[in-house]
């Protein structure tokens, strides 16, 4: 696709801008900022990826993945500010998720150990892990706040902090995993996944594209389970002090 | 004849500050073993805070609490909380049946708790086996409080802390709960610490009474001896002068 052809796609930006102005939705500024940011960010990533792919250096791959983990951590931590040490807990979760998934993919030689495979797959998995962590933190903090009485009841009967928040912890893990599982039930029926569509448009064999998509959705299941479980089990102890007391306003 | 009493819980200059405002200020005194002590005072007096300190749900910012003669900080919280039960005003439940709720103290310790045992505890609080598989949250206020009391007894506590457990109940249920607590105290020798807004109830049930206001212990002593000054305090409460 040439830049001239690409510029014609700006018509798709023009339509919402006109609608927003006509209907007084007040979204023109946000739409314009989003468009400009996406152009700059994606072009920058495109050139960066081209440089990394050409260099084929392991250090650049590690640097790219570190950047992804750092950005995802900084984004997700906003939802868990009340949880002590949430930044390192999220970073550790993302590192473990990335290590386990890539360990399986590369260890069993499911994909070649090249930047072209490692970086895009890492991006999808880390991005999904970040969304899952945000979903988990949103639900977990809400659950804790709405059930402080039950948590204190279990502590008062001689229960441990883990026993006191077990129901809230499992509810939040379940709730954050459900969207991933549900979306996989209708995959291919309602919409074709982005990566698969991209490969098909790029001229790849559809069956080959489906195989790669399956690889990704299976890996996403592990990502979903590991992210919420790790963030959950790393977070809940910080809601309590050493005397097994629920810290006031610990999850608000 | 002079009586000597043994401390079940002793406070030494207990204070609690949250931010700049004091919640409790220099509380000293004892709750006596095997006796019923009632705590009266308006909302915001610090009664519930003091009660929660007794089973380490809250820690004072200064001062010391002794369980008999042992500093509270040297007792592991789970051990302490098994020995000192608490029943709260709103009677919180875990989602589930009466049986699941009564069995909770045992299941938390990984112990088996049979239906037969649950029925025994139901009978202690004047309920029968037909309640066993009813949803705890569907019960009336009085029944909920009885289940809460039954549940707190499963750990066989030496001390029972009661936080305004009759404040939302009808007169018939209040009378039933009062008789039940008196019976538990007399038959099992369990030390009772009972928070109430009702001064008549405090006098009627308590061997000893503490009057608290604005985080301070105004008076404490034998309920019968305190009666005159208690009445004066009640008048202040009912006028709402000190209510927060």
TrEMBL record, chain A:
What organism is recorded for this protein? Ureibacillus sinduriensis BLB-1 = JCM 15800
Tell me the membrane topology, using the record's own terms: Multi-pass membrane protein
Q: Which domain of life is it from?
A: Bacteria
Family named by the database record: Belongs to the UPF0014 family.
Is-annotated flag, keyword Membrane? Answer: yes
Subcellular location, record wording: Membrane
Task: Give one Pfam hit by family name.
Answer: UPF0014
Q: Which UniProt keywords apply?
A: Membrane, Transmembrane, Transmembrane helix
Q: Indicate what this protein is called per its UniProt record.
A: Membrane protein
Q: Which GO terms describe its cellular component?
A: plasma membrane
Output the InterPro entries linked to this UniProt entry: UPF0014_fam
Where do transmembrane segments lie in this chain?
Answer: 57-76, 88-111, 117-138, 214-236
Which PANTHER family does its entry note?
PROTEIN ALUMINUM SENSITIVE 3, UPF0014 INNER MEMBRANE PROTEIN YBBM-RELATED
UniProtKB/TrEMBL annotation, chain B:
Checking Pfam families in the record gives:
ABC_tran
Reply yes or no: does the keyword ATP-binding apply.
yes
Q: Name one GO molecular function term.
A: phosphate transmembrane transporter activity
InterPro entries with a match to the protein in the record: AAA+_ATPase, ABC_transporter-like_ATP-bd, ABC_transporter-like_CS, P-loop_NTPase, PstB-like
What UniProt keywords are attached to this protein's entry? ATP-binding, Nucleotide-binding, Transport
UniProt-listed SUPFAM superfamilies: P-loop containing nucleoside triphosphate hydrolases
SMART domains annotated for this entry? AAA
Domain ABC transporter, by residue range, is 9-239
GO CC list: membrane
Q: Name one GO biological process term.
A: phosphate ion transmembrane transport
Stored PANTHER family: ABC TRANSPORTER I FAMILY MEMBER 17 (PTHR43423:SF1)
What is the name listed in the Swiss-Prot or TrEMBL entry for this protein? Answer: Amino acid ABC transporter ATP-binding protein
Species per Swiss-Prot/TrEMBL record: Ureibacillus sinduriensis BLB-1 = JCM 15800
